[in-house]
Amino acid sequence: VHPYAQVALGILTAASRLIIAQANRDYAVSQLLEKVGSVYAFLSEDETIKKMDSMRDPLAKIARVISACAQFIKDYSETTNFWKRLRKNIMRETQITVSNYSKTLDELMQQYRDCQTRDIQINMYHVVEDHNIEGMAYAGGAGLNTMKKCLESTRREILEDIINWINDASPDAPCILWLHGQAGRGKSAIAHTVASWFKDMGGLGSCFCFARGRQGEHREEKMLTTIARDLAGHYPAFRRALAHALAEDHTLKTTPDLLQQWQKLILEPLSKAKGAIVGNVVVVIDALDESGQDLSRKEILSLLASTEAASLRNLRVLLTSRALPDIEGALGGAKHIKATCLDNVPAESVQRDVTLFVSKELGDLKEIGPMEIQQIAEKSNGLFEWARLACQFLNPNSFGQTVKERFKSLMAIPSGEGRALLDGMYAAILESVVPKSGKRFRRFCSVMRQLLMMLEPLPMTELNHMRSLFPNEDEHYDVAIVLRFMTPVLRGIGDHTSPVQPLHASFYDFLADRSRNEAYFIDTSNHHDLAYASLQLLGRELCFNICGLESSYLKNSQVADLPERIKKNISLHLSYSCKFWAKHLEVSQFDLSIATSVQVIMESERVLFWLEVLSLIGALGGAEGSLRSLVRWLEGHVGYETTSVLAIDGLRLVQNFFTAIACSTPHLYLSALPLSPHSSFLGRILVPKFSHLVEVAQGGLKDWPATQLVLQGHTSHVNSVAFSPNGNRIVTGSLDETVRVWDAKSGDQIGSPLKGHTW
Asked: Considering only 215-229, 522-536, 670-684, which range has the smallest mean pLDDT?
């Protein structure tokens, strides 16, 4: 049986177990129980099993409908109560639902028997409950990418092993499978294949992907909230449990504390939903090694390796990464984590799959026959990324060389293993299109430097707009004159709307490491050009009420067309510049032109317009770090004292009014600005620039309050307080016999109180 069919059979088996275990079933659903039983018997027949490989679409639909039937039967009492509240006839609604499910299953089984694939509409019935989980951070664009799936009929053995592990219902089955191996082994392709198959069957809980080019988004901070929202959208029982947790403690929606997110948004709802979910909950986490530096994933690794994770028997987490020291150290020895290394897959199996891939990619080239395909597969040494690059390298449209000549060049690349083999391939590709000196070489270095230093990938149009603002006019050219030759290693080149990013993270690593690549090494130690361009954009495009909001009575989340307004009025390059100008500033040497640009923004109303954009795009949390970076960058430079003071005032404004500004952007002007201390630089310089603001007639703040946050939780006197060395945490000890740890930025308590001391 193909692994795809194994996914369907696993879901069918789990659904049947859920149905059988359901006690006190209402007579009204007995017909549906009988129908499910007949479908399961049909799918168990030898003739049915023989057809499974060729009848995937109806098989997937049957699995989805059976799963929905099981959920309907499980939630039947809640469903009838819902109908009752709507004053509907329960018997009639039940009969309609059962009849529709039965009819759909009959049609799908007949389609299966006839070996035909027809479009059959599937209607799912579930109670639409008003459980508000809005406000939790969600990492857009971090989900499943079906374009990354394995080629059909490849990686069958490893996929079978993973599917069997997911379907394993035994209590001692490990709940996490760590799939690791060298760059280019195909880890992501396997992860996205598994996620895609389970999504087809309606059995995917969540798929979350890290990407080297997206490190500026800090996806690690949103991973658990994104997974929780995905699970809530898929499993009604989980959604109810999650909504209950959020209702009891609304701060969980915005807490940066990963431990609280793990315990309250994942573990506890999963535990409460156990028994109401068909099969195991499948979560795929791809490319954890691309999250950034070790610290970016330290807490995630700690949570995955914890004994709490080991206790979740209905969870299956497929995690992929390279075996970096910190990841291997955290996951390598845990009993509830099954480690599988792609470097150890039998060579003959990998060779077969690479040969299939190369045959498909080069099958139309008459100059490449079976012997050449075999040579390429052998040269790849099991690296799928190398094989893909080799196929791109043999492009018949390459300038000045025949396919045969390029094949000879390909075979001349020194053989090696892992990274050395990929490096040789990258060098060969670049040597075929980029000279090692002269104007064209300098332009290549400049464009690739821009790409490598970007903290979030942008389309070519946006890259060109930022480049047009670089201080050196010699750099003002269309990036397409370089990028159109880079299609073997970059995506997003064919159109001007898709972000330009590497097809594989190892290419950027190759360019940025002088020890791997002397000739085409790209120095990214100075971000001067991007810092300058970002500040120029802020100076030119920021304006008051950029999205034309009419009322302060609505939260941002209540403005129905806010996403459309943002898309229309806030360009991608402006959004990028607002989020990352200070990040580029940090990695730039002090320069008068940049300092002047900063001065113009900070000493005018544009600083408020900048905060306005951050509020609208949901990135206000980064303002504090940006302003701190600016203050550090200006330290010791004469003539910018006012700019530094205004930056500190802006920091205090964000700290004191963060909740109001983040919730409703107009309150930046209507509440935060007029209620700021009049004696502050910000109050004296910026308040007069805005008319019709409310005025504090009597009292008001004379200076920024020393109290930034009130930490609430202790029930008795606090007799000891200390900051962590990095200033991010506060620890307090109290006569209530607890020690508590707090987030210094938000004031949220981190984890549960530590108990044990009596004095």
From this structure: 670-684
CA 644 – CA 635 distance, rounded (Å): 8
DSSP 502-546: ESSTHHHHHHH-TTT-STT----S--HHHHHHHHHHHHHH--TTT
CB 516 within 8 A of CB 510: yes
Q: State the CB neighbour count (10 A cutoff) for residue 471.
A: 13
Q: Which residues, 6+ apart, have CB-to-CB distance to 491 below 8 Å?
A: 498, 500, 501, 502, 503
Encoding tokens for residue 569? 């009025």
For 554, left (φ over 0), alpha (ψ -120 to 50), or beta?
Answer: beta
| Per-residue buried b or exposed e for 64-92, using 16+ beta carbons within 10 Å of the residue's own CB | bbbbbbbbbbbbbebbbebbeeeeeeeee
Burial class (CB in 10 A: 0-12, 13-18, 19+), 671: middle
**pLDDT for res 399:** 62
CA-CA distance, 625 to 666, in Å (whole number)?
22
How far apart CA 271 and CA 312 sit, in angstroms, is: 7
* pLDDT higher than threshold 60 for residue 131: no
* Contact criterion met (CB below 8 Å) for 39 and 109: yes
Q: Is the backbone of residue 701 left (phi > 0), alpha (psi -120 to 50) or beta?
A: beta
Tokens of 444: 């290549």
**Closest Cα to residue 474, out of 435, 527, 529, 430?**
529
Please give the pLDDT value at position 27.
Answer: 61
> What are 260-264's contacts with CB under 8 Å, separation 24+?
260/748, 260/749, 260/750, 260/751, 261/224, 261/225, 261/228, 262/224, 262/303, 262/308, 263/308, 263/751
Sheet with 176-180: strands ordered across: 204-209, 281-286, 315-321, 176-180, 337-341
Asked whether 16 and 170 are in contact (CB, 8 A), the reply is no
Q: What is the C-alpha to C-alpha distance for residues 402 and 366, in angstroms, rounded to an integer?
A: 12
| Domain ranges within the chain, ordered by starting residue | 3-132, 156-345, 348-432, 438-521, 528-689, 718-755
| Whole-number Å distance between alpha carbons of 388 and 391 | 5
pLDDT tens digit sequence for 137-147: 888 889 999 98
The average confidence (pLDDT) of the chain is 85
Distance of CA 383 to the CA centre of its chain: 25
Single out the residue of 305, 272, 271 nearest to residue 174, CA to CA: 305
Q: Would you say 319 and 304 are in contact if contact means Cβ atoms under 8 Å apart?
A: yes
Both tokens assigned to 248: 């009891």
Convert the pLDDT of each residue in 594-613 to its tens digit: 999 999 999 999 999 999 99
| Whether pTM exceeds 0.90 | no
Report the greatest alpha carbon distance in the chain: 89
The single residue listed with the structure tokens 């195991």 is: 280
Residue 77: per-residue pLDDT:
62
Quote the pLDDT of residue 757: 82
Q: Give the C-alpha distances (Å, rounded to integers) separating 149 from 54, 188, 190, 196, 469.
A: 19, 8, 7, 8, 39
Measured CA to CA in angstroms, residue 163 lies from 145, 156, 187, 316, 656 at distances of: 19, 10, 15, 10, 51
Residue 703 confidence class, pLDDT cut points 50, 70, 90:
confident
Length of the chain: 759
**For 421-445, what is the mean pLDDT?**
86
Tokens of 265: 């948004």
CB environment 22-54: b (16+ within 10 A), e (fewer): eeeeeebbeebbebbeebbeebeeeebeeebee
CATH fold of 156-345: Rossmann fold (3.40.50)
Bridge partners of 321, per DSSP, are 180
- The answer to whether the CB of 389 falls within 8 A of the CB of 381 is no
Per-residue pLDDT tens digits for 375-415: 888 888 888 888 888 888 887 766 667 888 888 888 887 77
Q: Which long-range contacts (CB under 8 A, 24 or more apart) does 751-759 make?
A: 751/257, 751/259, 751/260, 751/263, 753/713, 757/733
Mean pLDDT of 515-521: 87
Three-state SS annotation for 627-665: HHHHHHHHCCCCCCHHHHHHHHHHHHHHHHHHHHHHHCC
